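B., you asked whether I could sanity-check this one before it goes into the benchmark set. Here's the sequence:
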Amino acid sequence: MATPHISAAPGDFAPDVLMPGDPRRARHIAETVLDDARLVTEVRGILGYTGTHQGRPVSVLASGMGMPSIAIYATELFRFFGVRRIIRIGTAGGMAPILEVGDVVIATAAHTDSSMSANRIPGIHYSHAPSFALAAAAVAAATTAPGTRAGAVHAGAVLSSDAFYADRPETNALLVASGTLAVEMEAAALYAVADAEGGQALAICTISDLLFRDASLSADERELLFDRSVQLGLAAFANA
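And here's what the prediction gave me:
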């Protein structure tokens, strides 16, 4: 069943989907990680592929940038294509001073300044949380991954922001004091959609820059460390 945003046929997507933001990263995953990957959708340049990894069917679909975009693609995958689990593989800005560029944050909660899910349950402040099984499996995989330095993988809350260019040092300080690790732009919406559609979701983000210090990853470093997050996501699918 094609939708306005996905041109795939029934059965084209595997139950498990990795979801980077950038279509080029989706293609990179398909070409370097999946076996026998085939293109299943390319509407609006948002590329989706399905193949296998270690004999298990896995798909990858780009989400675009921001919460409205990932909400559209995640909703359609869960509702119309039989997808049951989505793991966002992305980047984030480090907020907590314990972080270094290249570290990985497994988002066990997602605060947000967006109003997308604010009125879901009248009178209630909705909590955005991932699948515990996926999060626990990703953390377990991170602790045993070869070459991972101590402290390089963190589990905790992120801020999913509607604004990329936002000057809010006081708010950031309060968030860090309350345990927030990083800021990104998609996890809260993905978690809310998974709850609404009866699916499971997780966000695994590589720290590409720091809000509190002038430091950032080069393009080559981003690709190398992005691949590490992909492997954590695949391990979470296999072991959750």
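One thing to flag: The radius of gyration is 17 Å. Otherwise nothing jumped out at me.
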